[in-house]
Specification:
homodimer, three-stranded antiparallel sheet, 8 helices, DNA-binding
Chain lengths: ~220, ~220
DNA sequence: AGCTCCATGTAAGTCGTTACATGATTCA
DNA sequence: TGAATCATGTAACGACTTACATGGAGCT
């Protein structure tokens, strides 16, 4: 339910086509990691927002000899209201829904090596995320990202600091998250080492606890 | 795509009805926070797993004068294979998809008080989560949860430590996550205070950046 | 002529939520 | 007799993914 409002916020920054929104969303908001959305979803959602009266589409010609058109979306008054309403609303957070933690709770169905592989992949993924986010925060602080620049251009200078600071704070939180995940993966690797040391005779490839099949009445 | 496998893991611990699985999943794996699933989803998924041959349903009578039946699910050989396959597989993590971070990046559309309310709600939510998870880790370490006990009963004593340790590690990671969120929310509150102090004349209720509606060609 | 980018969609399917619906069992 | 719990589903809808499909614009 958040893509709607992220789109409204992006549109507020200036009239944009679905193509541009998809590109921007998957860079700035998503940084290709946090919330990637397919163009198919964005186009259909824009049509819905239009039907709901939250955005307005201006059909514009493309190119010089305009044989095709594009649709530039703008915020309507209702859309601006909805954007403010969303910011003020307290939603209950969705569950964390992280498969890595579900799997971690059941690692005994694999070998110690399998467990190590999971934690190493987890660490590698969040190391990359952390690095990407750190680059992004620096760009935000330098006010170097196109989306931010477009937004600042339309706002009075005394709020530039606030606009920039909120975005940077969001990304700094994501960096802190990534660091927490990295530390957790490393503690997981330590744990596996301790468990393996306590069971030195167990074959490296064998599941700690082979899944058992119950007696089965023949159907 | 993880509910499938969480169910397989729960079923491995012993034959269970859909009702029992729903209850257990929303306590142990979910702790009502991490991955709640409705019974409707669980029942339909169990039927699908059955059709795929990963589980087998034993139809049993209910009560003494059995006027109704229940279906106790067990793991098939294929199901056990799928469980091991899942543990060994490295999935790419889904995006974080956290609305709180999306919203945080656009807090300039609300007042400073709205921003504070968001961060306070965030902190309160994760403080509760942290406390719940801490209780759960203690219960796991005491081997006091019913699901864990059932699982240990069916496993040889030399792997009890591993089974318990993996689950406790997962929950300790969730505690660390919650602490990171709390710290982020508090830094957010500090940030809002700094921004508000720099703009002391701004009305408390006014949006930092009122959303603007673009000129609209009449349709 | 060919390649990359711009631009917009439809269709099918999975996952998940909310609401609707039913009925037996157990215990006080 | 009534309430809580056990037990199992269907229907409709929204969010999201993957695959399919099309075609102009700009440049070399």
């Amino acid at each position: 339910m958040s893509l709607r409002h992220a789109l409204l916020a992006l549109i507020e920054a200036g009239p944009s086509t679905g193509y541009e929104l998809a590109k921007r969303f998957n860079q700035s908001a998503g940084a290709a990691h946090v919330w990637h959305a397919q163009h198919s979803q964005i186009y259909t959602l824009l049509r819905r927002l239009e039907a709901e009266g939250l955005v307005y589409a201006n059909t514009l010609p493309r190119g010089e000899r305009a044989l095709a058109t594009k649709r530039a979306y703008e915020l309507t008054a209702d859309g601006a209201v909805e954007l403010s309403r969303w910011i003020a609303a307290i939603e209950d957070p969705p569950g964390l829904r992280d498969t890595a933690y579900v799997k971690a709770a059941y690692l005994e169905y694999g070998s110690y090596d399998h467990a190590r592989a999971q934690f190493r992949a987890h660490r590698a993924y969040y190391e990359k995320l952390r690095d990407d986010f750190e680059v992004h925060v620096e760009q935000l602080e330098d006010r170097a990202t196109p989306t931010l620049q477009q937004r600042l251009r339309r706002a009075s200078p005394d709020v530039h600091e606030a606009i920039t600071a909120f975005k940077a704070h969001a990304y700094r939180g994501l960096i802190a998250r990534a660091r927490t995940e990295i530390a957790w993966a490393e503690q997981g690797l330590d744990l596996v080492d301790r468990l393996a040391a306590a069971n030195p005779d167990r074959p490296r490839d064998a599941p700690v606890l082979p899944a058992t099949v119950h007696k089965q009445d023949k159907a």
